[in-house]
Amino acid sequence: MTYGTPARTSRGSQPQSTSSNLPVSYFTTSSNCNEPTGSTMATTESEPPLKRQKQLVLSNRFGAPSELQIKAFYEAIVRMIAEDLQPLSIVENEGFRNMVKLLDSRYQIPSRRALGRTIIPNIYSNVRNKVQTLLNDTSFIALTTDIWTSINTDSFITITAHFFPKGHSQLKTVVLCTKKLHHGHTGVYLAEIMTSELNSWGILDKITAIVTDSGANIKSAIRLMNIQHIPCTAHKLNLVVQQALYLSEDDSVGEESHELHDSGKIKLILKKCRVIVGFFKRSEVENRILGEKQTQLGFTQLLKLKQDVRTRWNSTLIMLERLVKLKEPLTVTMISVKEAPSNLTPEEWVIIEDIVPLLRPFNSLTIELSAEQYPTISKVVPLLRGLQTSLNAKTPKTSLGSFIKSNLMLQVNRRFEGIEKQSLTPYFSRATLLDPRCKKAAFAVEENASDVEKNIILEIARSLTNNTLDAEREVPTEQIEEDSENLWNFLQNRVNNMQGQTTSTSSAISLMRQYLNMPYQNLNCNVAEWWLSHKSVLHPLSEIALKYTMIPATSVPSERIFSKTGQIMSARRNRLLPDNLDTLIFLHKNM
Fold first, then answer.
1. What is the mean pLDDT of residues 247-252?
2. Which of 18, 193, 476, 485 is most buried when burial is the number of CB atoms within 10 A of its CB?
3. Sign of torsion over alpha carbons 409, 412, 414, 420
């Protein structure tokens, strides 16, 4: 029978459509066209002969999927599970199976067992090999790490790696592992876990620095590993605002207190804000009335109040900003609602309006420094100076606003006092000096910039000396034997070494001066790309610059991994832990 031959319907009046533009899955019902199930066969037998013949023609026309297509299909399923953090059991869900069957019923959906035991491990192995190749081809790697405890009180540590792939100017971020911790979080145990993981990748000797929060145990672990520790700038900024607003302290202060200190007044205002937001969050009726008032007042978009989370200061900023935006409809609503809590007084509203602009620069700075695609560590010094300048320019209307401003400036100065110095955390200032947009102009103290320059010159000189020594090691053996018979050889070698050191130092000074005399670049400059384009002219300073530039300013990349991990920890997904968690998080980030 020809495919396009028309056929009569049961009424015998209209020809049946050939539907030639529909996918093959529309005509076939088997999940695998080569191996139909019993139910499929029964369905096929009950179908009209003409329709069965059409299905056979289409099946012959399109054919069964090739091995390459089947492989791509399996990879697509794994990618979906990894990217969307779905449970493996999704392949058993009737809705998912029906959807795939409708799209193309020639494909056989793998079982959960096959997915977990064969397909995912094979794909994981392939992705790991690709990541390993990238790591092997780079000279310097920076890490971030964080520890997280799940709702089941299981603890996990994750490690992310950051580097410039060979010949590329865009930072690459990969997840190395997300491991369950089976013992106490001591410095020794954490050092063993991290060292073992880095050795499994063969990159321990390539690690330039590790960025973490200020936990004593993780700092101890990194010290035991003899690697430079970089404190997370975002955590420090968080502590600055937390302490300036007394967010980390108990806010149990009664409204009947008449003589409150400034700290008590701040806590009282924030407590009232939380009570107001909580009231509207709990009441559907009052929340609907608030929406109606917004409409009556001409709001084009209905807004809802936001509750803050005590441990995240930026959520307090979001709560206060939203309260200020909804001040008018909120006040009208609370007047008309009988059981509404006490509203903020006019003076308290003005204080909130003072607080919001003081906190916004901190939020902008945190967002700027939490990026993964471009270098951030070289921005810390200049942006902190910008933060201080911004705070100085603010003029609060209330005495409490002025108190908070002074508190913020005091905390910033105290926590970032040594950021330009070479004593505790020298990598911040070195990265800044080697940023062609910043150089010495970003430093508040010229002496600090000069100290950084001296340290980098010493590093350049060591690199030049090592290159010379490597070249000398390539001297033929015959020549070494002849030189050993020369009794004056010891003196000649000593003179050569002294001259070599002098030459290396003078060359390093000249190279550094050459870089500093180059024009400053605009703020949109791609720092890594700039150094790569000047690699031949400024070698080995270009390699040193890229070594520092790639270090993240925050440990946010590893924290983001745990925000994803939390999604997997729902009751529906608990079956994944701990065996599949590391694999899925690895594929989620690296596929």
1. 62
2. 193
3. negative
Model confidence pLDDT, tens digit, residues 483-520: 556 666 766 666 666 555 568 899 999 999 999 999 99
Cα 419 to Cα 108: distance, rounded to the nearest angstrom: 59
- Which H or E run includes 209? strand 207-212
Do residues 20 and 27 lie in contact, with contact meaning Cβ atoms separated by under 8 Å?
no
Residue 224 CA from chain centroid, whole number? 26
Report the C-alpha gap between 399 and 394 in whole angstroms: 13
Q: Which two tokens stand for residue 560?
A: 């983001």
Sheet with 207-212: list strands edge to edge: 172-181, 155-163, 141-149, 207-212, 228-231
Cβ burial of 73 (10 Å; 0-12, 13-18, 19+) is middle
User: Would you say 535 and 511 are in contact if contact means Cβ atoms under 8 Å apart?
Assistant: no
Task: Calculate helix-pair angle for 346-369, 399-415, nearest 10 degrees.
Answer: 20
pLDDT tens readout for residues 431-475: 999 999 999 999 999 999 999 999 999 999 999 988 765 555 554
Whether cis (ω within 30° of 0) applies to the bond prior to 540 is yes
Residue type, 560: R
Identify the CA nearest to 156 among candidates 584, 574, 532, 561: 561
For residue 151, give Cα distances in angstroms to 87, 556, 570.
17, 21, 9
Task: Please write the tens of the pLDDT for every residue from 64-90.
Answer: 889 999 999 999 999 998 888 788 889
The identity of residue 449, as a single letter, is A
Mind giving me the DSSP string for 111-159? PHHHIIIIIHHHHHHHHHHHHHHHHHT-S-EEEEEEEEE-TTS-EEEEE
Angle between helices 556-568 and 581-590 (to 10 degrees): 130
Q: Are 471 and 552 in contact (CB under 8 A)?
A: no
- Hey, what amino acid is at 512? M
Which among 172, 167, 191 is positioned nearest to 181, based on CA atoms?
Answer: 191
Per-residue exposure over 170-204, b if at least 16 CB sit within 10 Å of its own CB, e if not: ebbbbbbbbbebeeebebeebbebbeebbeebebb
Kind of pairing, strands 228-231 and 155-163? unpaired
Name the burial class of residue 459, with classes exposed (0-12), middle (13-18) and buried (19+) by CB atoms within 10 angstroms of its CB: middle
Q: Using 50, 70 and 90 to split pLDDT, how confident is the model at 92?
A: very high
β-strands 155-163, 172-181: how paired? antiparallel
Note whether 584 and 175 are within 8 A (CB): no
Report yes or no: 88 and 546 within 8 Å, Cβ to Cβ.
no
Region of 434 please: left (phi>0), alpha (psi -120 to 50) or beta.
Answer: alpha
How far is 71 from 65, CA to CA, in rounded Å?
10
Token readout for 226 is 């003899």
In DSSP terms, 5 is beta-bridged to none
**Cβ neighbour number for residue 559 with a 10 Å cutoff:** 20
Does 527 or 28 have the greater pLDDT score?
Answer: 527
Q: Alpha-carbon distance 438 to 444, whole Å?
A: 12
